[in-house]
Amino acid sequence: MSAVFLEGEKALFIDSKKRRYLVTLNDVGEFHSHSGFIPHANVIGQKPGLVAESTKGAKYTVLRPTLEDFVIEMPRGAQVIYPKDLAPMCMLGDIYPGARVFETGIGSGALSMTMLRWGAHITGLELREDFLNRAKANVKSFLGEEALNRYDVSLGDSYEDVPEGEFDRVMLDLPEPWRVTETAEKILVPGGLLVAYTPQITQAVQVRESMGKGWVDQRTIEVLHRTWHIEGLAVRPDHRMVAHTAFLTVARFIGA
């Protein structure tokens, strides 16, 4: 990665109120807000961390976006899985470099990007073509062309279609994941893991009930995210927190 910003690279502009703006740099482009504009040329060739000033005197700290930044700000069609759940899903699913993952319910590609960043090889099915195209575009936009070599996604109905080959992991984000349990039993290697993301507890219950004697070490968790206010000696939990988003269910398949 270059030490300075290059044309075509993504940059994150953060204003004095900590509002964040994701920008793709272009030699002739301009970043516009209610506080004036900043030519992209003022950023290209500069190191991350510079403070750029708009035509109206507003100052923005310009940084390279992290994956967390990109997931929150990226173009989307479907609702994304947020960072507070993405990392736990990859930890529960024990995603590692070279892991063969079957993913279904691709959406906007947030989980895909996280697993690809961890080195996984993904085979995926998505029912909607617009979601599939958006996910592939997001993967390419943030991770680059090379990541697409490990991202074999296509249109299909995971309730009906069975992917070819063996997989180490199955990652599910769709309305009725219990309907994919039987497929998972056909494609998972012994000891392989399944992780299901379900907004409602009744969905998590149905996932658990769909697992027969071949499944062990079943768990369902919920991740709560609370930030803290720290200003000198004034230290307290923030009044608002990101509480429930989904239940995460994980289990190992050891064979029928």
Could you characterize the architecture of this molecule?
The protein is of the alpha/beta class. Helix content is 22%, strand content 32%. The protein has six helices and 15 strands. It has helices at 67-73, 83-92, 110-117, 129-143, 181-187, 201-209, and strands at residues 10-14, 20-24, 30-33, 36-39, 51-53, 59-63, 100-104, 121-126, 151-155, 167-172, 188-198, 215-222, 228-231, 234-237, 247-253. The chain has a seven-stranded mixed sheet with strand order 9-8-7-10-11-15-12. A four-stranded antiparallel sheet has the order 2-1-6-5, covered by helices on one side. A two-stranded antiparallel sheet has the order 3-4. α3 runs parallel beside α4. The longest helix has 15 residues, at 129-143. It is globular and about 65 Å long. The termini are far apart.
In short:
The chain has 256 residues and is α/β, with parallel strands linked by helices. The chain is built from six helices and 15 strands.
Top keywords for this entry?
single chain; 256 residues; alpha/beta; 7-stranded mixed β-sheet; 6 helices; 32% strand; globular
- Rg from Cα: 21 Å
Tell me, what's the shape? globular
**Series of secondary-structure elements, N-terminal to C-terminal:** EEEEEEHHEHEHEEHEHEEEE
The end-to-end span amounts to 47 Å
Percent strand equals 25-35%
The portion of residues assigned to helices is 10-25%
For the biggest β-sheet, the strand order reads 9-8-7-10-11-15-12
Please count the beta strands (DSSP E, at least 2 residues each).
Answer: 15
Largest beta-sheet characterization = 7 strands, mixed
* Global structural class: alpha/beta
**Contiguous runs where pLDDT drops below 50 for at least 5 residues:** none
Number of alpha- plus pi-helical segments: 6
